User: Fold D-methionine transport system permease protein from Pectinatus brassicae.
Amino acid sequence: MSNDMILLLGKSLWQTVYMVCVSMAIASVIGIPLGILLVTTAKEQILECQVLNRIIATIVNAVRSVPFIILMVAIIPLTRMLVGTSIGTTAAMVPLTLSAIPFIGRQVENSIREVPYGLVEAALSLGATPFQIIRHVLLPEALSSIVAQLTTVIIALIGASAMAGTIGGGGIGDLAIRYGYQRFRPDIMLITVIILIVLVQIVQFAGNYTAKKLNKK
Assistant:
């Protein structure tokens, strides 16, 4: 393999890591509060508001039901409006972020629902406000599970970022399409697959380790 191809592999790997990290960070800022709202606004919860809960749940389910490849194409006008182009690494982060937000919301919701409601009742009996319950009871108790769930989302984003290469999104997927598939280079295809596998293994190990350290049980 030539030095130019090695440099291109390094650049593509950096683009993938960049896409995933930025998309995950933005999606988490929105998705985690979304997951909290999905739990706390449900019936007989601390912020009960069933109308709001149904609206949020409907939007989340609608976005999650759209396959990523279709979402990328469908929001091209939005992508162009936000970043000025629909091609490239930065452009790919728009659909990546939008697809991750509802995924994170549902994962966080599942983690928080695992917290025994008795802890919430105990906090209410002590006069805690809903915000205090969320901050000091729900999130700390669910933190280990949330980290494990977010690890799953990161791995899904790695796969989605590779898919973004099909429309010029950059990263490992773009390299595999342009230099592996279109130029009939099975060696490039194999290397990109190995890189993605190693990347996923690293993320999974780090996520499992962190979740285990945060587990209070």
Summary: The CA atoms of residues 61 and 102 lie 8 Å apart. The longest helix spans residues 3-40. The chain has one domain: 3-214.
